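User: Show me an example of a complex going from sequences to structure tokens.

Assistant: Sure. Here are the input components:
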Amino acid sequence: MIHSLLTLNDLHVTFSTRRGLVEAVRGVSLSLGEGEMLGLVGESGSGKSVTGFAITGLLDAAGRITAGSIQFRGRDITKMSGSDARNLHGAAMAMIFQNPRAALNPIRAVGEQIADAILAHKRMSRDEARAEALKLLRAVQIREPEKRMAAYPHELSGGMCQRVMIAMAISCNPALLIADEPTTGLDVTTQKVVMDLLAGISAERGMATILITHDLGLAARYCRRVVVMEQGRLVEEAEPRTLFHAPQHAYTKRLVAASPTASSRIADLVTDEESGRSVAIKVAPRPPPAPGTPPLLEVHKLAKRFDLGAAAVADFSMMIRAGESVGLVGESGSGKTTTSRMICRLIDPSEGEISFEGQAIGHIPARDFHRSPFRKDIQIVFQDPNDSLNPRFTAFDCIAHPLLRLGGMRAGTALRQRVEQCADRVGLAVELLTRFPHQLSGGQKARVGIARAIACRPRLLVLDEPTAALDVSVQAVVLQLLDRLRREDDLAFLFVSHDLNVVRMMCDRTIVLRNGRIVEQGASRAMFDNPQTDYTRELVEAVPHIETIFAAAVN
Amino acid sequence: MAGGMAAFGVTMARAGKRFLSSLPVLLGVLVFTFLLMRVLPGDPAVFFASGPNAGKEEIEVIRKQMGLDKPVPEQLMLYLYDVGRGNLGRSMTTGQPVTTDLRARLPASLELTFAALLIALVSAVPLGVLAALRPGSIIDHGVRLFCALGVCVPTFVSGLLLIYVFYYLLGVAPDPTGRVDIFASLPPSRTGFLLIDFLLAGDIDGWWAAFRQLILPALSMALFVIAPLARITRASMLVSLGSDFIRTARSVGLPWWRVVVTYALRNAILPVITITGIVFSTMLGANVLVEKVFSWPGVASYALDALLSSDYAPVQGFVLLMASVFVIVNLVVDVLYGIADPRVTVG
């Protein structure tokens, strides 16, 4: 039997907010053995991070443990004095965080920061601590560690910063490591490297690890045991295999269904009762294109160079037919956003041609494109539903704006009807139209963004990571909505994403970009099942596929 | 530490670029002040004529001597030519060249301003940090009240109050008349800063006397600028304390003071540097009230006297001096920024 390292007993955490007390964790009980790796899975607001912060004593001033106990090596740390607790943190238990670059002090060399962490618990000279820090940088496989010692966080990539963070966390050989969304926001390939490193270090040093994540696939790949949290409660605890094949709790069922996998289809993402909420509005069908009409969008040898000379995008050619959905994938810095911005004419290309239904539009300066009749045909849905809505516009104003500016409509009953129709189509309740963005949930904001984009009945929708900021269950609903809108209105999609599973589901064809150049393109399923280039293979393999994990487990 | 040297080189290059780009501003200031002085009412020739009943001919002669009969553009060109050769003209009130006057009086103003700024920083930064560590507490409200009082009371009122309490009531402060006691012997002037000159001469008693003269005017100036400095320290400390890297520092169990000083305060200090630069330039020019109350022989009171007697050259020289100080202070802030924040790059 494994000796229990950490035991949570009926833990309650309450935050005092302006609107009164909010209970974020409501009675969580779990135990963790020495050296065990546990996945703690849940969506935003489920209380998973708060549980982690309660264990490591990092709750902010408004949060308090109101009931329950946290036993660490047989001692209740909720009743520990300040100095005892400080000796525990960093030494016996450590934590790594989401957004590694922000988690490091921006004006202190990373070597010094690691040395600080060592000196907080060990008696030695600064030089000895530096030598120790260098060893740690080697342990987390940072290239040229001597050089990196003096580097500042802004000079390192996100993956490098997370390695530094791991080095800091393991500096005093803790018995427990809590990793809070350690790879969210990193590229898939980096994600895999960092997670492999983390799992390797944990196994090697016998560290018990709690992996807090929203990504079921990630938890399943690295953990033997997964617990699922919803609204501050533990709803299910199982081996990943059982969790995926026979989820017990309704919430887990929904979560498992909503997580895109290599074989999932859009229709499977959401259970029927949920998808029934948005009303399918019949729109007048478009006339079928006459034979011989040019394709909807044609891009020829597009290139973009920014001031410093290096090409962000080069030699990019593609074509989209009416009603077709094309995916654009690549890691950060691959030029996918630059390409999509050029195509929707928000920035000017340095070279190349873009033609829309046979008419060249690449030469129209981006500044003046809003006056072009094609503006309403090419619309965009942005990544961040928070930042892309004007905070002083109500949902109604947001959707009405393009109708007034591009659709030539005037304020009045017709406009109201049209906006309400758009809201209906995206499944946004009409009574929400009077609200401001901060009064809407993430999913509702995403719907407003989509309604705004489709208000003028565009022909081509450029979607720039439309669901990257959303929880999986919300993502599932939004993806389904987008797919339905596309089929209803014969819309073409240019779908920019880093999530291969999503692209595989949503897109007929996919283009893989790397360093601004096309690496591979082809029909989505065929390409992902049988990638032709090493790079695409690397990308595909980096995605935690549940099926392959289980296949490997059987072997 | 080759990286450090390279970063320093980059910072200096940026500072040099900034300096060059501020030269046109200085020229603009020069021309603008010159024209402004010509537009203001008051005729220096009338002012400097021998008496109130001086005849028209006498005034005309003076005008001619001063070159005021020439057209304004020609006067401007002559002035610019002189400035280019380092000649700022002659003060009609003191009879001395303006450069000599400014050189004699600038150290007095600088010494006062530096002392005031030092007092302000030494009290404002800890106050701001304390307030940020316990937002909404008694300390926070106390600091806010103190700052509000400092801003509300004009410097000449606080100066007079300080004189009333420490000189008149308690008798611990010396006469509020200038930089040293009139009977004291001055040290040989090397830097113009009395505190430094006394130290260099090894005259501890003289140093103490000068220090006692300095403390009240410096204090009344400092009171006025503690508020902005403490408020900006509090605000940026709050941001800094709430950021992710403070959470990281706490998660590895760093000692409390290390989290607050090395991690939070060093990040929070950047906006404080900017505000300090602005405050310094403002103080140097705006301390005329304090200089008047304490009979301090500084440049601001010199410029005010000159302005009241339509004495063009000293006023123009003073404005040019202030503009130059502003440029230099900005350069210093730039360099400090480059040292404090490794993220600042050429831009």
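The lines above are the inputs; the final block is the predicted structure for all two components together. Residues 105 and 298 of chain B are 5 Å apart (CA to CA).
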